[in-house]
Design goal:
Serine Threonine Protein Phosphatase 5, Tetratricopeptide repeat; 3 domains
Length: 234
């Protein structure tokens, strides 16, 4: 008669132990904490980089975004942000490389299409610019900067009605009203609607700051209005 081997409680405890599961939970907790710390560190670096940009310390900002890219080479947003700084510095070839890389990593990043469109527009490649602006708006119809930038490009092509439609849409969406009034005023002026142009220039000057990038736009608007009101002295 064959003997049966029974597993005693003592042997059963040896075969099944909760210790490995506890170790797995502990390891998972450690990994989550590490990931959270890494994410917080990356957010801190991005905040520092954006602060450097506001202070005009572009080289330092580029160094920080480069550090972020080294940490995570798949971060489309960091390539896009670094490209934007390169563009602001006039280093356009470096900018387009970063924009293209950002879109390779994330083909749905509307801000990268907007930025690449600005690059094309700066080179006079307006058809390519309009295509990228349209792609950005398809992805994010609420991208106010793209509505404005595409409107300016339409204006450059003499398509004033389309330009005004874009700027009106941007105004409906809200935000950046000072820039919109300035660009819409310029569009009205070039179309020959001088009264509308003056009204928009005045609206823009009421809210445009006196310093920074907006200060430069303010001086441009003042010059446009001066030329319109005093054409012989311009």
């Amino acid at each position: 008669m064959n003997a049966h081997t029974f597993v005693t409680r003592k042997n059963q405890n040896r075969q099944w132990s909760p210790m490995p599961r506890k170790n797995q939970r502990r390891l998972a907790s450690v990994q989550l904490v590490a990931q959270k710390n890494e994410w917080q560190s990356a957010q801190s670096l991005r905040a520092s980089a954006k602060s450097k940009v506001k202070q005009g310390e572009y080289a330092e900002a580029i160094a920080l975004f480069t550090q972020l890219i080294h940490r995570n080479p798949n971060s489309a947003q960091d390539y896009n942000n670094r490209g934007l700084i390169y563009f602001q510095l006039g280093q356009k070839e470096k900018a387009i490389v970063d924009y293209n890389r950002a879109l390779q990593l994330n083909p749905d990043l509307d801000s990268a299409y907007n930025n690449r469109a600005n690059y094309y527009a700066s080179r006079g490649e307006l058809a390519e610019a309009l295509t990228d602006y349209e792609k950005a708006l398809d992805l994010n119809p609420g991208n106010i900067r793209t509505w404005i930038n595409q409107g300016i490009t339409f204006r450059e092509l003499g398509l004033y009605d389309l330009a005004l439609e874009n700027l009106d849409m941007a105004l409906i969406l809200g935000c950046l009203e000072d820039h919109i009034y300035a660009e819409r005023g310029r569009t009205y002026e070039l179309r020959g609607d001088w009264n509308c142009a003056i009204a928009d220039y005045q609206r823009a000057l009421t809210i445009l700051p006196h310093s920074g990038a907006s200060g430069r736009l303010r001086r441009k608007v003042q010059n446009w209005m001066s030329q319109l009101l005093n054409p012989l002295s311009a």
